[in-house]
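testing teh design pipeline on a random one, pls ignore if ur not involved
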């Protein structure tokens, strides 16, 4: 049997199998075409999986269309909203079908400015209460970054660089490193370039995972300081953290607290405390050397269902929104105010 005859025989057998399986016609055609072209079994499966992901992406994007951006955003906020609603696809084997992907959830948000800057979840185990603070990635980034003219120019240059023939087989991590090396050689000989940082690999209170490559045009290794330091930013928009990142966008670091999403504040009318470790430990704002027990003498944990909202002050009702995903709230037994939380990096 000739090589061509073997291909035909193999394709016919695959056709018989396909006829017994319920799959979209486009996926079957990719499999049969791959077999007819002599692709290996593994390649046939990969090609069919790729087509399945394409179909899944089309269906998911149709079910979650891109909305118009609300009016009134400044340039930085608008750029962040575009990233936070950017579709990063729907891979066949990710968990998005069960849990939803970040870009799907974000496309349901009419105005990111109206989101709480922080959400508090209090869990109760035996006699212990555990506080989890989730900081809005939109508010945090809008406070710490600026999409200025240089950022815009660098982003455009990166987009052109990515399309070069020598970069076609590289992922964004390699492309960005090569791009900054190219920029250093051509335009910024003193440029300092750091390493990629993924917030999933450490502690973070942010509502979404960030991946970024910091650099300084003047060679300043203290890149987290405001000045001429920039970063190429990707936001995780998928479900599984291994994939689903946005195209990188350049921003200038304009704030002084980019690495300080761990710094939290909580207060009522009677006093305040701060934490520098995501809420694991709290300290008196007036006596920073002495650690206080949590809760304080006047602060108690109460089930949200036991609260009479009509008896709350306007300020407490506003604070209650930060506890929307929690079964418990903290309330001061002295001033009767619900304890408010904030991320000190957002200002």
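output:
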């Amino acid at each position: 049997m000739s090589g061509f005859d073997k291909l035909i025989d193999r394709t016919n057998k695959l056709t018989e199998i396909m006829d017994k399986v319920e799959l979209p016609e486009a996926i079957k055609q990719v499999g049969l075409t791959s077999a007819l072209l002599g692709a290996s079994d593994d390649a046939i499966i990969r090609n069919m999986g790729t087509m399945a992901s394409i179909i899944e992406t089309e269906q998911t994007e149709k079910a979650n269309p891109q909305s118009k951006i609300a009016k009134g955003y400044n340039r930085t906020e608008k750029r962040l909203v575009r990233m936070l609603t950017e579709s990063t696809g729907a891979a066949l084997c990710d968990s998005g079908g069960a849990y939803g992907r970040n870009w799907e959830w974000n496309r349901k948000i009419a105005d990111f400015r109206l989101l709480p800057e922080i959400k508090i979840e209090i869990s109760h185990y035996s006699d212990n209460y555990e506080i989890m603070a989730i900081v809005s990635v939109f508010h945090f980034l809008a406070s710490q970054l600026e999409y200025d003219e240089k950022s815009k120019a660098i982003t455009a240059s990166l987009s052109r660089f990515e399309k070069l023939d020598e970069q076609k087989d590289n992922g964004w991590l390699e492309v960005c490193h090569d791009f900054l090396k190219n920029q250093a050689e051509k335009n910024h000989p003193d440029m300092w370039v750091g390493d990629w940082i993924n917030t999933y690999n450490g502690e973070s209170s942010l509502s979404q995972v960030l991946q970024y490559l910091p650099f300084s045009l003047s060679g300043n290794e203290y890149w987290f300081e405001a000045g001429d330091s920039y970063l190429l930013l990707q936001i995780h928009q998928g479900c599984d953290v291994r994939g689903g990142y946005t195209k990188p966008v350049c921003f200038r670091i304009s704030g002084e607290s980019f690495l300080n999403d761990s710094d939290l504040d909580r207060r009522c009318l009677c006093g305040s405390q701060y934490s520098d470790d995501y809420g694991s430990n709290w300290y008196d704002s007036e006596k920073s050397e002495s650690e206080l027990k949590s809760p304080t003498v006047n602060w108690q944990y109460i089930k949200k269902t036991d609260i009479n909202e009509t008896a709350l002050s306007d300020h407490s009702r506003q604070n209650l929104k930060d506890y929307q995903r929690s079964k418990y709230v903290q309330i001061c037994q002295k001033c009767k105010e619900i304890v408010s939380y904030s991320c000190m990096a957002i200002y």
